[in-house]
Each structure stands twice: as structure tokens, then as C-alpha cells.
Amino acid sequence: GAVVSQHPSWVICKSGTSVKIECRSLDFQATTMFWYRQFPKQSLMLMATSNEGSKATYEQGVEKDKFLINHASLTLSTLTVTSAHPEDSSFYICSALLSGRGYNEQFFGPGTRLTVL
Amino acid sequence: RKEVEQDPGPFNVPEGATVAFNCTYSNSASQSFFWYRQDCRKEPKLLMSVYSSGNEDGRFTAQLNRASQYISLLIRDSKLSDSATYLCVVNNQAGTALIFGKGTTLSVSS
Fold it and tell me: How buried is A80 (Cβ within 10 angstroms: 0-12 exposed, 13-18 middle, 19+ buried)?
């Protein structure tokens, strides 16, 4: 199947700093990528839909100025958590949409575990 | 009502048991349905899509009832390696993104 990578796989940072997470589709081009967040024992929650060459679409309750998304190429989307605080500590997972004729499937990256001290 | 609701877990079963998970969804306009598997601290992986006619993949059988907005997953002859969290997933109203249930944890013991 298609491969999606994320970098870094884990990060620990101080409160107030910004953290950038990269999501790459390694063997296919993805016009659309998605960013999810998962807190312990909770479901994955969609944060935003990232569209190549245009602005991301954020879900209700997600601050676009805090979670900056850039989808500059067909294989790379980045999520920057600005001025991170301990409550932003979570498992961030991206997915890339592989579309074909009558076919759509999301492939997930391995996730990035963020801990804000 | 939550968009996707699943059986509360965990399910603890012995090897060889048959176990069934249920899921309901609130958006009658949803068109795509899936079961994903998520291992601890890992990303979710697609287990199988769910079709109206029902579909089977080895020991796994998925069923969809659109009228009741209900999805099920049956696992026969459980293996130790089936231990994981199973996520019921439907697409959103726009059909552009996935909505995940909270997941049901399965623990298979020898």
C-alpha cells in the first residue's frame, strides 16, 4: 500500500515554543491531506483538511492561528503548533488521500507524539 | 448524539472465540464506512471497508444496515494478534473526511 511518513515521531518541548510536524506521501501525490489529534483513550479528532496550493479548512473549535498548516507541494503538508502549551500534548496523526477512478483511500502516517512541558 | 458511537469496551475473550462489535452513526447521508484497527500508540490501519451487501475477509465479516444506521464487525476464531482497538469510521457529511468512533478494545488471551 501507499506510504506516508511523519517527522518527528516524537517531540518534547517547553511551553511557549513552536513545533513543526511534517507529513509526506512517499510514493504518491496527495492533493488532500488531513490532520488529526488523539488524546489518550479518545478517538481521532479531525483538526483540519489540508489542500495543496490553497488554505486549509479547519474543523469547528480548532484555532487556525495556533495550528498553522501549509501544503506547499503534492507530497508534503506541515502542521505547526505555535506557542505550545501542556494541553496541546497529544498524538498528532496525518493522512494523505489517494484518489483514483472511483477509489478514495486515506493512508495514515505513523503519528507524532508531542509532549509540552 | 455523537456522530459515531461504538460498543463500550474492553472485550476480553479467549483464543478461538467469536466476538462482535457494533457501531451506530448519526449522519444518514454518509456513504462510506470502514473498520480500522489501531494498535497501542500506533496509527490506525484500514481493516476493511463495509458495503451494503456485507463483506467478508477471512475471519472478519462486516455488515451495514443503512436503515438503522448500524455497522457491525464479526471476528471468528480470535487470535492473540487480534488484540487491538477497533475503530468504526464513516465519512463526514461533505464526504471529504473521516469521522472516527472512540474505538472498542479487544484483548484476546491464551
Answer: middle
A46 interaction partners in chain B (CB closer than 8 Å): 92, 97-99
B43–A contact, CB cutoff 8 A: yes
pLDDT digits (tens, 9 = 90+) for B28-69: 888 889 999 999 889 999 999 998 888 999 999 999 999 999
Helix, coil or strand: residue B43? coil
Percentage of chain B exceeding pLDDT 70: 95
Chain A residues whose beta carbon lies within 8 Å of the beta carbon of residue B32? 104
Q: Which residues contact A113 (CB under 8 A, 6 or more apart)?
A: A9, A10, A11, A91, A92, B41
| Residue A102: predicted pLDDT | 67
Bond into B10 cis (ω within 30): yes
